[in-house]
Specification:
Shape: globular
Distance between the termini: 57 Å
Structural class: mainly alpha
Radius of gyration: 21 Å
Number of helices: 13
Oligomer: single chain
Amino acid sequence: MFKIIIMALLIFIGMVGYDNVTDKAQPTTPVQQEQQKVSKHEKSAAMALFVSLLPPKEEWPSPVHKFYLAFNMDEVIDPIRQNPNWTGLDAMSRDIPQALIAIEDHAFYNHGAIAVEGILRAALANINAGEVVQGGSTLTQQFVKNVFLSHEQSMERKIEEAVLSLMLEDNYSKDEILELYLNTTYFGAGSTGIRQASKTYFGKAPSALTLAEAAVIASLPYAPTGLNPLENPEGCKKRQLLVLAAMHKYGMINQGQLAEGKAEKIRLTNGTVM
């Protein structure tokens, strides 16, 4: 236990001490931007040297490893962005992120990493509907859980999720987090990320998806296996209609678009028409 405490303190002192001497102001000129890049490289070099003095990471207790991860998320996120299937928001139909936000976290751009009011609102909506129609976790929390943590239901994991979510939003913009979510989420049928999902279900690039198809994609994070439209088109259609209704409710589409989305016949890659 003493060794664990010492390791945690060393990591804490090293990271916080370095951050205190690093200029955290947002770069506004090319010179400042270049200086920020240099600072990042210097921090990476310093951290690599610091970690080399500790035992191998695989020997670190979980709390210590998560603490390190909170200050070094780029070690996980940078490789994700190098994936050949990476798709930026500007390379997909704008209906995709809007549909996802509408059904999963409609106030995503207006709250922090954790939204207590969202948890309460979701609980009331689910009680009124008699089923789970909304989730209480923010998209940031969902990304953290999917990429950094296990799906274990425990108080320790929820605390880790909260801390990592706060750190993520401190270092990445909302658009960046939304991109990360869409590129790492499992959408069922062996498809991880928006590009694979679009190809698997519709044989299209994300940029070519219609409103109705985007609503199908947004339906899937809730239950990617159970709502896989290739296997359960009826169940997926029911969820898709909830997505379209949510988009209309939060002003993302008008009445005409809602009607058009509901009426569209979607042809899946296996020939099924929804």
